[in-house]
Design brief:
Order of helices and strands of chain A: EEEHEHEHEHEEHEEEHEHEHEHE
CATH topology of the largest domain in chain A: Rossmann fold
Strand content of chain A: 15-25%
Distance between the termini of chain A: 15 Å
Largest interface: A-B, 30 and 30 residues
Number of strands of chain A: 15
Number of domains of chain A: 2
Strand order of the largest sheet of chain A: 5-4-1-13-14-15
CATH class of the largest domain in chain A: Alpha Beta
Oligomer: homodimer
Chain lengths: 258, 258
């Protein structure tokens, strides 16, 4: 199966690896992109790690990647905030990846008087962080969320994801946040900007219909669903809009330069 | 305004006091109940304190009260769990009041293999507590919540209440809990059992239409809304079902023995 594209947006967990398990066909797929000098960008809803850490993890999995190949929802969120207000005062609930992305974009982290409340996954969550964020939202701060994933796959099972923690603030204040990560178009449009390509020149590759593929569909891109992760053929067959391409393994995809 | 009742169920915050501020008419109201030897029971959605602490706080506010005058949503929750399973294995997320109520009822606190996951307000919330609770719910434990209040009034403003913290688990697992506190009938029916009175012999007194009054309505009790707290006449005028009685202050209510 093939079609020529100038660039690839690629999901990580379930597509490039499964937790700590390698997916050899995915590694070969990226090596071939690199070989043919076709641009690729990993687009992830993981807000907790800076891109250098994500790239390091990929290299440990034998995937050719450096920092410039990684675009996280934290980076997209920091950029989105700049479009609302340059050097904004931000009340943040999240981990290192979100913090660094906000600071690199020139925003200021505050506890009171925030222009923006932004929340992502925070495994060091405290009641006080939630209380401060809620008070800032009630005082009129714009509420933004890195991503809506309600569950996080771990070796223990599915534990609460960013989207479920974020519901504390939305339920308590009655304010629904603007979500940035997949399946929203925001993160994909920014990723295309980073690559300098249009949605017609690029394809979105991922294992999760409800995040990766929907994000591609909403951006009017072609999409490639690989059945190595979350979504199953049985599920996808019941959905209104199909991915452009569906394959069992990335080895089935012949990379052709546009 | 008056009607004779054999017993009174009475709300606390907004009805007996406002935060640390006394409401003198409410104090006199309870003193008169005591004088006339009419049974009264304070029914509270506060799951964090044991009844002895609640009674101590009331006495400090000059309200005649001891432990037997207090019925908390934690006590109602512990009793409700016994109706599902005697001496249940319970994974708990909550504070001291909930913990003590569960232990007094003979339940066992566990981290894995729970029959029941119960959650209330927990201002020492951690991600690990939420993760364990979510894993127990996904493994089939019955999910129960002390109360659904989404916001908690404090001197800083409205901060997240039990209901918003609980949404982490409901959003993440897709399982909606059984709520016990007002406006549910469960807590009121149990309070009537504690008093040994029927719903026709008893009146529910409170300041909040959406919790106190609705709980009374759902239990087919008479209800007395006192406008010293959350609800306003303008709001209540728009609701389908009115309280039985509405007054500006408890001094307007003449207590008559049934």
């Amino acid at each position: 199966m093939t079609k020529a594209y100038k660039g690839y947006l690629i999901d990580l967990d379930g597509t490039m690896y499964r937790g700590s398990e390698k997916i050899p066909e995915a590694i070969e797929f990226v090596k071939e992109l690199k070989q043919q000098e076709i641009p690729y960008l990993f687009v992830t809803n993981n807000s907790t790690k800076p891109p250098s850490d994500v790239a390091k993890h990929l290299r440990e999995m034998d995937v050719p990647a450096d920092e410039k190949h990684v675009f996280t929802t934290s980076m997209a969120t920091a950029t989105y905030i700049s479009q609302i207000k340059n050097k904004a005062k931000v009340c943040m609930v999240g981990e290192e990846g979100l913090k660094l992305a906000l600071l690199e974009e020139g925003h200021e982290l505050v506890e009171e008087g925030a222009d923006i409340v932004v929340m992502g996954l925070d495994r060091q969550i405290t009641y006080e962080k939630l209380a401060k964020a809620a008070l800032n939202i009630r005082a009129g701060a714009t509420f933004i969320a890195t991503n809506g994933d309600v569950a996080l796959p771990t070796e223990r099972g599915l534990v609460p994801g960013a989207g479920s923690l974020i519901s504390v603030l939305s339920v308590s204040t009655g304010v629904t946040p603007t979500f940035i990560g997949k399946p929203e178009a925001v993160i994909v449009e920014q990723a295309l900007d980073v690559m300098g390509l249009t949605h017609k020149e690029t394809i979105m590759v991922g294992d999760n219909y409800h995040t990766d593929i929907l994000a591609g569909i909403r951006t009017q891109m072609d999409t490639l669903l690989v059945y190595t992760g979350v979504s199953t053929k049985e599920q996808v067959a019941t959905y209104d809009e199909s991915p452009t391409f569906e394959i069992d393994s990335l080895s089935e995809w012949n990379i052709v330069k546009s």
